[in-house]
Specification:
This protein has about 190 residues and is mostly helical. It is built from seven helices and no strands. The structure holds zinc ion.
Length: about 190
């Protein structure tokens, strides 16, 4: 799949986080992290002694990276809490919240990449083996060619549309939209 299609899939898969998060303002960093990791597995085609759809295209990699990033966020949170107590502009995250933020964004990004790749018709005979090392069974649902513009741009468009809708909804529930945009429209009547 093209990078734009992966970005679209990440925007779709990260959307449930907006519902799950207690503090909605944390949704933006989760989305940013999902986008930052959505293309990460494709580094396997660019590093020596590896092949495309190798180790980074596995559930094992996605879960391991999720754990590592979550723990890294928790570690940073523990170490900056004293700074946040002194400087108002530094956000204070509890370690558990920081772990959820880091792990949630990373899992959404990596899972979206894996899901998008198994939708494809494998080219160059290199289907993903997402359950390696437990199983070397290739998984390719064969729904699209990697360069299919309808799928790539369709996923990107759907992802952007969902995020725009969510942004408007989150702004509305936080009271951040001007009142005239949230009040129901009524026609002006002349007597
Ligand atoms: Zn890939």
């Amino acid at each position: 799949m093209f990078p734009l299609g992966h970005v679209g899939m990440a925007l779709l898969l990260v959307a449930p986080a907006a519902v799950l998060l207690d503090r909605k303002r944390r949704y933006l960093p989760v989305v940013a992290l999902a986008l930052a990791t959505a293309l990460l597995p494709d580094v396997d085609g660019k590093i020596p002694f590896s092949h495309h759809h190798g180790g980074p295209h596995t559930v094992l990699f996605a879960l391991s990276a999720t754990l590592v990033v979550g723990l890294a966020f928790a570690f940073v949170s523990v170490n900056v809490r004293w700074l946040a107590r002194r400087i108002d502009s530094v956000p204070a995250f509890r370690p558990r919240s920081a772990f959820a933020l880091g792990a949630g964004g990373t899992l959404a990004g990596l899972a979206s990449h894996l899901l998008a790749d198994v939708l494809m018709i494998p080219v160059a005979d290199n289907p993903a083996e997402p359950f390696w090392p437990v199983s070397e069974r290739a998984v390719a649902l064969g729904l699209m060619y990697p360069g299919d513009p309808a799928w790539n741009y369709g996923l990107l468009g759907a992802g952007i549309a969902v995020q725009v809708g969510l942004t408007v909804h989150l702004l509305r529930i936080c009271g951040c939209l001007p009142a005239e945009l949230t009040e129901p429209w009524t026609p002006n009547r002349k007597n």
